[in-house]
Amino acid sequence: KAIDAMLKAQSGDGQAEADSPIQPFSVLRPSQLARWLRIPVETSLDAFAVGLSEFLSMETRGSVWVQPSSVELVYFSELTQSVGAPSATFLLDVSGGDQSGVGLFDWGLDIGSALLEKMLGGDGEPMKGSRGFTSIEQQVLSRVTTQAYAPLRDAFREMLTLATRAPEFEPSPPMLKVASPQSRYINALFSIRSGAMEGTISLGLPLACVEAALERRQKDRGTPGETDKESKSMLGSDLKHASVTVAARWKRVLLSMRQISEMKEGTVINLMQDRESPIQICVNGRAMFEGVAGQARGNMGVRITQVLSDPVPESPTSGKHGRVQ
């Protein structure tokens, strides 16, 4: 019925039902997260996977492997339909920025039953059939879920505020009315494996809460353009007040101790260098240019003739006895 209504709407013969769980694809509502959303969300999901793995390993006294497998945007109706029934779904309050909503955490029938089996000392075989969970099993899963919210809150603490709505068991998610069927949700799937226990769990978060939280965080930190502009301004200000030592270095002249001892006012030291021979220009002790000596406006000056592509560090002074460089 829903598909027929949607096809009629597309052909112009009618309108699709507003509350239909099946929605036509729209390029204006892509199924993939935008980059500015995807990176922080995936980082938080990776952190949650690590925390959940550690928690389940301690709870089951064995090694439990948890890994994010996919992240996509879905409607709330699609999210609840994908979970199915019977199930092991729990709700949590989500707030981010100025938005609030309800999130879903679902163990799935296979993982939920296998987890109970391992906690009771079994090998983690999933439940056969689809009988659902007994009241005692629901209470045990509620306790485990409440504790599993701790690594979830830690993983999203810089983005969202998560609170246990009520550890009540939701056996039939498709019947939930906690959000509009067309509300957009981030649906994250996690693969879990431990011995015979293998399956997928899902986490649904309201997109509006995540967007509002990240927009507020970006606003508090400043937009990238403003940050770059401020950094360039500070760098330019620092460079204006920076100073370096520039020195002209002639070729070394070797003098004996006798020549040095005979020095007095008026003594001329022969540099053994003509006017056109290059001299090195050192910046903070590193030879970066070559030039020739001359005059500029009645003062001595150096004209740069070459830029050294590989700056030469200042050579250490010689330690020869009886010689001074």
UniProtKB/TrEMBL annotation:
TM region(s), chain numbering: none
Domain called Flagellar motor switch protein FliN-like C-terminal: residue spans: 238-308
Localization terms from the record: Bacterial flagellum basal body; Cell membrane
MF terms in GO: cytoskeletal motor activity
Membrane topology: Peripheral membrane protein
Gene Ontology BP annotations: bacterial-type flagellum-dependent swarming motility; positive chemotaxis
Region annotated Disordered, chain positions: 216-238
Keyword Cell membrane: yes
Primary localisation category: other
Keyword Membrane: yes
Biased composition (Basic and acidic residues): 216-232
Pfam families tied to this protein: FliM (PF02154), FliMN_C (PF01052)
UniProt-listed InterPro entries: CheC-like_sf (IPR028976), Flag_FliM (IPR001689), FliN-like_C (IPR001543), SpoA-like_sf (IPR036429)
Cellular component, GO annotation: bacterial-type flagellum basal body; plasma membrane
Domain of life: Bacteria
Family membership noted in the UniProt record: Belongs to the FliM family.
The protein, known as: Flagellar motor switch protein FliM
Lineage start: Bacteria, Candidatus Eiseniibacteriota
